[in-house]
Amino acid sequence: MKILKHLFTICLTMLCLTNVAFAAGNEDIEPGLYNIKNDVYHEQEIGMSMARTYLDETMQLEVVGDGTYNYIVGFSGTEYMNNHRITVDGKSVDIETVEEGASTIKLKFTVDSLDSKIQTQIYVDAMERDVEFDIIPNFDTLELVEKYEVEEKEEEVEAVNTEDESDNTEETQEETKESKSSTPVIIAGVAAVVVIAGAVVFAKKKK
């Protein structure tokens, strides 16, 4: 039984590492403006229903070339609620109102990572208190709206050096892509080997 518990622990650890590797792949999204759907979370059912009713299902993700990520999130029902606030990884962030209508509002804010936890707090007049819920981007629904052109700084260098640097850059980028894409496969392979080896040892001891 102890061996089986150890095998289960190892498999669970490997699975977590694989998920982290896939999540890190989101950071490779090319600069541009994207539409992306979201999910919501609240600990109570009525909170979930309210969040889904007043939060636009589709928001926008702006990926800037310098590693900055901006979200543009829309809310409705502003005649019943106000004082919208956003926290990222537990810290309040500055928000910019990019669009406002009679009963709608769109807010823009910045996150440091695409894996950041996003929460919003809204004051509901009828309840006379804040309602807080999570906003969860669904990266499987990512849809490009506009691609951004990244400006490259031109430097005066000799033609030979420029060609060499270009070749080295391309090779480095290819190696990096191959490394990132193979990471989950390597982890999964290691997990499989460990499980099989453990099973063999367990079978021998049982005999």
TrEMBL record:
Keyword ATP-binding set for record: no
Chain segments annotated as transmembrane: 185-203
Presence of the UniProt keyword Transmembrane helix in the record: yes
Region of interest (Disordered), residue spans: 153-182
Signal sequence segment: 1-23
Keywords: Membrane, Signal, Transmembrane, Transmembrane helix
PROSITE patterns with a match to the protein in the record: NEAT (PS50978)
Entries under InterPro entries matching the protein: NEAT_dom (IPR006635)
Domain NEAT: 29-155
Acidic residues biased stretches: 153-173
Protein's recorded name: NEAT domain-containing protein
Organism: Intestinibacter bartlettii
